[in-house]
């Protein structure tokens, strides 16, 4: 027991410093998170989006690609496609 009692006063100062430093780091991280500051690394930049022209319509091709088509090229007489026509049109 004497050996344990002798180590306690020297360890208590280092423990206090460790607890104080851990508390300071935690407080800094909490403040930075609440303010929205980046702590590590860079933020992901948004990818530039392709501009869509005003007179275009997005349509799906038979092979599954999405393309923009000028609206003036489409015919005015539109009709709904039936399920059977759609199933026969799609290429797998």
Q: Could you explain how this protein is built, in words?
A:
By secondary structure, the protein is mainly alpha-helical. Helices cover 45% and strands 11% of the residues. It contains 2 helices and 2 strands, in the order H-E-E-H. The protein has helices spanning 2-35, 83-89; strands spanning 56-60, 66-70. It has a two-stranded antiparallel sheet. The model has no long low-confidence stretch (mean pLDDT 76).
How are the SSEs placed, and which strands pair?
Elements: H1 2-35, E1 56-60, E2 66-70, H2 83-89
Antiparallel strand pairs: 1-2
Class based on secondary structure composition and strand pairing: mainly alpha
**Unreliable parts:** none
Instruction: Provide the spatial order of strands within the biggest beta sheet.
Output: 1-2
- State Rg: 33 Å
Termini, distance in Å?
Answer: 81 Å
Shape: rod-shaped
Number of helices: 2
How much is the average pLDDT? 76
Please write the string of helix (H) and strand (E) elements: HEEH
Helical content band: 40-55%
Task: Describe, in short, the structure shown.
The protein is mainly α. The chain has two helices and two strands, in the order H-E-E-H.
């Amino acid at each position: 027991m004497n050996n344990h009692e002798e180590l306690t006063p020297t360890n208590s100062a280092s423990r206090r410093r460790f607890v104080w430093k851990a508390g300071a780091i935690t407080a800094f991280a909490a403040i930075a998170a609440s303010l929205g500051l980046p702590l590590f690394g860079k933020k992901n930049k948004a990818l530039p989006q392709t501009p869509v022209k005003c007179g275009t319509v997005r349509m799906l091709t038979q092979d599954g690609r999405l393309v923009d088509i000028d609206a003036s090229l489409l015919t005015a007489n539109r009709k709904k496609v039936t399920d059977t026509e759609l199933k026969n049109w799609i290429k797998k």
